[in-house]
Amino acid sequence: MTISAEFLEPIITLVLLLLLAVIAFGIVRVRGLFAVVIMLGAYSFLMATLFIVLDAVDVAMTEASVGAGISTVLFLGALYLTDVKEATGRARRLAPMLVAVVTAGVLIWGLSDLPEFGSADQPIHTKGADYLDRSIPETGIQNVVSSVLASYRGFDTLGETAVVFTAAIGVLALFARRRSDGKG
Amino acid sequence: MRLDVVLRVTTKFILAPLLLFALYVQFHGDYGPGGGFQAGVIAAAAIILYGLINGLAAARRIVPDAVLERLIPAGVLIYALVGVAGMFTGENFLGYNHLAHDAVHGQEWGVFLVEAGVFVTVFSSMVGIFYAFAGRRRA
């Protein structure tokens, strides 16, 4: 007995989204930050799986390696430097609740303007640049994501690389005080 | 951590495949998923794993701070210089068409070099941020 992909895919997506919601709830409720960091890693892996279901393999790879890999290590490093227990703040429940409800309301309102999920007749698919047809004859690159990132939209990627560079020198400037202390 | 045999042995086994996988992701990005960014993160993860198991000093012997601080801007420079090189061949900034004897090969060279630049900056940034966190004493 074979199960068709059209039937299976929504179920997989639903299960993943449910698990994401459960983990998000856990992240908010749990006070032990060590458990929270591990749950953030699990969240990233679920997100990566969801990206794979949506055929965005490049994004999934980035999410898994950065979100679940490097971020977890950096979070654990931050925990080592601070504390593994979340500080219990004063009870100010009303204002955050209001902000959350308003934000959620605006997002759901904006959702109604989005095109139907997976619809092929949107302007982005019909009027945009036809990279799918152009990529192989013009660049010889079969993965259109790569050719768009590095060639057609190379300027954007230069900007992204500059952002990573800026983040790195920012962190190094904040943390590497010891060496400048030594110089005087 | 030093006495944890399972972690140490597993790390030893996994390090070489991890670096190899980073190279695969880097150079196979034209045909499959991946590219400079993902490969840079995976290669950085290998160094970070080594640092977690063998201590920060051991990792710093493989990739010293002085090297990192040169690599972080070097990647952006490689990227920008490829763009300038395109200008010298009579194209726009970051236009690769005239980098080789025909347009398709020019594009392949351009994309290859640009991805290498992304790899260098992402790899060194990730390792550098990890060093910064791990090298700090607890307050």
TrEMBL record, chain A:
Residue ranges of every copy of the MrpA C-terminal/MbhD domain listed in the record: 18-82
Keywords from the named record: Cell membrane, Membrane, Transmembrane, Transmembrane helix, Transport
Cell compartment(s), UniProt: Cell membrane
Lineage: Bacteria, Pseudomonadati, Pseudomonadota, Alphaproteobacteria, Hyphomicrobiales
Source organism of this protein record: Kaistia hirudinis
Name listed for the protein in its UniProt record: Multicomponent Na+:H+ antiporter subunit B
InterPro entries: CPA3_Na-H_Antiporter_A (IPR050616), MrpA_C/MbhD (IPR025383), MrpA_C/MbhE (IPR046806)
Membrane protein topology class: Multi-pass membrane protein
TM region(s), chain numbering: 12-28, 33-54, 60-82, 94-112, 157-176
Pfam family, one: MbhE
Residues in MrpA C-terminal/MbhE domain copies: 127-179
Entry GO CC: plasma membrane
UniProtKB/TrEMBL annotation, chain B:
Subcellular location: Cell membrane
Keyword Transmembrane helix: yes
InterPro entries on file: CPA3_antiporter_subunitB, MnhB
Its membrane topology: Multi-pass membrane protein
Domain spans labelled Na+/H+ antiporter MnhB subunit-related protein: 6-127
Assigned GO CC terms: plasma membrane
Transmembrane annotation, as ranges: 5-25, 37-59, 71-89, 109-134
Keyword Transmembrane helix: yes
Main location: membrane
Any Pfam family: MnhB
UniProt keywords, alphabetically: Cell membrane, Membrane, Transmembrane, Transmembrane helix
Family, per entry: Belongs to the CPA3 antiporters (TC 2.A.63) subunit B family.
Name this protein carries in UniProt: Multicomponent Na+:H+ antiporter subunit B
Lineage: Bacteria, Pseudomonadati, Pseudomonadota, Alphaproteobacteria, Hyphomicrobiales
